[in-house]
Automatic annotation (TrEMBL):
Transmembrane domains' residue ranges: none
Source taxon at top rank: Bacteria
Organism: Mycolicibacterium fluoranthenivorans
InterPro entries: DNA-bd_dom_put_sf, HTH_17, WH-like_DNA-bd_sf
Short name of any one Pfam family annotated for the protein: HTH_17
Protein name: Excisionase family DNA binding protein
Length: 80
């Protein structure tokens, strides 16, 4: 029987931070917005991708970061 390498305790306990799930309140806090704004985005089909777990809406941090990156208008440039 071949040996199978088991993951270390650190590998199991330390998930990638971009796979963390945020609540709607945590998303609003991250963006400095009222909590109703992400709720409105969800009803309009805009804003970051989300998942529903029962009645609870959760946003995966990696999806939020992708969405944030796409908010930059490529036609506008910051001049310092």
């Amino acid at each position: 029987m071949p040996l199978v390498r088991r993951p270390s305790r650190e590998e199991v306990a330390m998930p990638d931070n971009n796979d963390k799930w945020l609540t709607r309140q945590e998303l609003a806090d991250r963006l400095g917005l009222p909590v109703k704004t992400p709720a409105e985005w969800a009803s309009k089909g805009t804003g970051p991708r989300y998942a529903k777990f029962g009645r609870h809406v959760q946003y995966r941090l990696s999806d939020v970061m992708d969405w944030e990156e796409h908010q930059f208008d490529p036609g506008k440039r910051h001049t310092a």
